[in-house]
Amino acid sequence: MTRAALNDRLLAFGSPLALFLLWELAAKAGWIDTRFFPAPSAILVRMWALSASGELWVNLQASLWRLFAGFIVGGIPALVLGIAAGLSRPVRIAIDPLVSATYPIPKSAVFPLILLIFGLGEASKIVMVAMGVFYPVLINAQAGVANIDRIYMDVAKNFRASRWQLFRTVAIPGALPPILAGVKLGLGMGLILIAIAEMIGADSGIGYMIWNAWQILSVETMYVGLVVIALIGFALSLVTDELEKFLVPWKRARG
Amino acid sequence: MRAAELQLSVALDAATSLEAAAPPPPKIRVERLVKRFGTFAAVDGISVDIAPGEFFVIVGPSGCGKTTLLRILAGLEEPTSGTIAIAPNDAGRPTNSMVFQGDSIFPWMSVYDNAAYGLAMRRRSKAEIAERVRPLLETTGLWRFRDRYPHQLSGGMRQRVSICRAFANDPDILLMDEPFSALDEQNKMLLHQELLRIWEETKKTVVFITHSVDEAVTLSDRIMVMTAHPGRSKAILDNPFGRPRDVVALRGDPVYGAFVFRIWEYLREEVRAAKLQEQEEGEA
Lengths: 255, 284
Fold this sequence. Notes:
The complex is a heterodimer.
Chain A: H1 3-29, H2 40-53, H3 55-87, H4 89-102, H5 107-118, H6 122-146, H7 150-158, H8 163-199, H9 206-215, H10 219-247
Chain B: H1 2-9, H2 14-20, E1 28-37, E2 40-50, E3 55-59, H3 66-73, E4 81-86, E5 96-99, H4 111-115, H5 117-121, H6 126-139, H7 155-168, E6 173-177, H8 185-202, E7 205-210, H9 213-219, E8 222-226, E9 233-238, H10 249-252, H11 254-283
Parallel strand pairs in B: 3-7, 3-8, 5-6, 6-7
Antiparallel strand pairs in B: 1-2, 1-4, 8-9
Helix pairs in contact in B: 6-7
């Protein structure tokens, strides 16, 4: 590692660490109100307790499952529809106004309706995540396919690729980088929506854990929930980065 | 040299070559082909017969519709009127494969998979694909780069892959659209020699487009000079050089200069006309 890279690494890890130390110091010295800002050590202790009792894992598992199911339910139709719209003018013309009109509606505002339709069970949470994942994946897949250089389509046509072969050998790989960017955005949106959905009408999940902690005024537990959500987001970002390296090897050596 | 001059002097124009090339039935017969984009006639009534195994080069100023002509031959554009007849081949082989202008190999496929593309689309077995692709990659010096992706290759190597892709598909007709225009002179020279070598082994019918007179003379059996606008056939010339050819030694032959000059005479006014056209369009 070069000296500059080492410095960057130190700075990247050092700045949050310094902040935590300052926070700890301020809490211990009584400079801040620990009812609202409990010391990081207190949050860690609570996290340990919640983990030991299994409560944290039950909730984490519930949230991750909903996130995963919602991702599949929303992501796969979005991928198919987006690529179809990118390839075919009629499909594009048919779905564009629908997408443009429904995309700006805040998904959280639709939640009461979703609860009404899908009930208090798992389905309503999964649908919320699915809605969050659907739009970014759809929009990016469509734009990704539409922006593939025409020459590649001509090549496929000249070499007599069938529709399915064109899909498999040109449309999907050509649009993969923007699709993965859409997946990343979609997962972020899904994480926001699952936390909201679990606060209302759920009895498990990280969102539920935070909401429940508010009701019993357990501030440390609320912070544990926030930390866990942040960690999930971070982990998802790492996973999608790795996925990108695996799925888009032709870009790996470029940087 | 006398003989070569004699050949030059009998070099035929469009009208007489049709009569002279009668014996073998043509591989490609283009008749009164017209392609309009709106009111713009990119191709305006071109007729030509191309013999089986012939290396036919079309040279013309940029924007003269030569690419349009090739794209019609490739089936990528529909003609407005006129016909193209291509003699059928023995079963199973594709009619044509195109080498496109500029970067056209898939960035997401390895060198090998790019070269194998046409065969893979035709669902050939892995063994058959290897049997066809490997020798081509070997003769073009690409075999040891077979697992690389295009961004790891130079421009010259990428264009080699594109040529391998077309040859590997084993088409009846090879269509080449200024495949070397983005390369430097030295790379171009190497690829000319390579292309001629592979072509002489396979004896495919080639329709090759270029704006370079030198390239046309180096590669062709016959050369069609196209007019600027609308795109018509101005003359069809027989290349005085025989086969096999050495692309460097060729240039030392006195006939070379004379033949290049002759093509330039046809081309000069067309290039001027094309420039004027551009200026008028700019002012309008």
